[in-house]
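Q: Can someone sanity-check these two? First one:
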Amino acid sequence: MRTLGMSVSSLWENALR
């Protein structure tokens, strides 16, 4: 489940950028 959080965080950062 940790990988999911990392993936979401990465996607979120990209979306915010």
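And here is the second, same format, sequence then tokens:
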Amino acid sequence: MAINDLPVERIPSPGNKPNRNFEHRFFAAFAAVFVIAVLVGFGPTFYLKPLFNTPPIPRAIIWIHGFVMAAWVVLFVAQVYFISSKRIKVHQKLGIVGVIIAPLLVVTGLFLTIAAAKYGTAAAPPNIPPLSFMIVPFGDLLVFAVLFAAAMYYRKNSPNHKRLILLTMLCVCRPRSHDFPAD
């Protein structure tokens, strides 16, 4: 028997309805879990600050970066909703906002990183000087910028675009353990 005579199992195509439904549910679940993680991690010290007895935020750049990050998260959730509800044109038009927010996120992130190196940060491990630790957030911002640029390049290729956007979310917004409340 020749290799060409062997039965081949057909691989489901990406246009399959079950695959699309799974992907829509996956991205919706990711968006929900992500919002919860951000609220748990940053709620007490930033987003829900008036409800908690936490020290004041010392620098304006933290507020600015926090609002830009909040806009990024809200945009992601909205974009997932519009795609899931098949409102592609709204998703595409709203994507322009992402092209504005992403560079703002990088710029505010750079300023925040410089401030953290100058004044110190809880994000840095105790045995690493803040100036040396600066490479970590700089690297995160660089990877975010490259992934976002690639996502924009592949915006007409839905499978690549959505996966790259998901990676930008994981890259720049990943919850850090020191941001979660200890109690």
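A (reply): Looked at the second one. The mean pLDDT is 83. The helical segments are 17-47, 60-84, 88-119, 130-133, 135-153, 158-173.
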